[in-house]
Amino acid sequence: MIRLENLGKRYGRFVALQGLNLEIAPGETVALLGPNGAGKSTTIKALVGLLKPTSGRALVNGVDVWKEPVRAKAQFGYVPDRPYLYGKLSGAELLRFAAGVYRIPRAEAERRIEELLHEFRLERFASSLIETYSHGMRQKLSLALSLLHRPPVLILDEPMVGLDPHAARQVRDLLRNYSAEGRAVLYATHQMPLAEAVSSRVALIHRGQLLALGTPRELLHQHGTQDLEEFFIRLTEDAALEPILQ
Ligand SMILES: Nc1ncnc2c1ncn2[C@@H]1O[C@H](COP(=O)(O)OP(=O)(O)OP(=O)(O)O)[C@@H](O)[C@H]1O
Questions:
Q1: Which of 31, 78, 155, 175 could form a disulfide with 199 if both were Cys (CB 3.0 to 4.6 A apart)?
Q2: ipTM of this predicted structure
Q3: Does 216 sit in the ligand 1 pocket, CB within 6 Å?
């Protein structure tokens, strides 16, 4: 459902991503791990069509994100690490606007919006301007936006940051359950217990390269580590090395 083929990205001479290959099948939830600056957000931004890769390609549900951006964008929902939402709209207005972009029929859109506002406990704030929302409320609105069109693929960049325990539990359940029924989820996180509990596979990137890929159980077994935190620290100990320049 998600396919990264030889994905590369440079910023000038700095190589942020080096020929990344990753395939995520229907039914999978994959956690993308890596130290600060490893290339997680770069990977995700190249995958969702926000940052043009220098090489390779990214496909969602068989559609090339850079060749057919409009078709591709109907295939996934995206939650950025820092949601930039237009502050002069209310939450409900933004959801209605997005429903229009996705061409969801009006009555169906209203039902869906009500459902999502309820699910994310945002009903009370539905008519308030987004500029008055707290960080966590914006994050929840961003999650609701990503789910609006019931996309087959969900892509999330550090979705847990700033969430209260209710919302955190809800997102954990979402990550765990959304990939059922033939959908797929890719999310970046620094929370090792979350990745261990909620992912069919884990992809570890380090200095722009895929260092390890497998089920949490396989990875712990292969590296003889107790938990993903120990695995992570052991494999990325040289995180402070010189950057790769070409
Ligand atoms: N616009 C840019 N110009 C130059 N370098 C950049 C740019 N954006 C990112 N980088 C560099 O690319 C590398 C990968 O950054 P990226 O944001 O993908 O890391 P990350 O794994 O998401 O990190 P974090 O866990 O801190 O969010 C970093 O070294 C970063 O400094």
A1: 31
A2: 0.96
A3: no
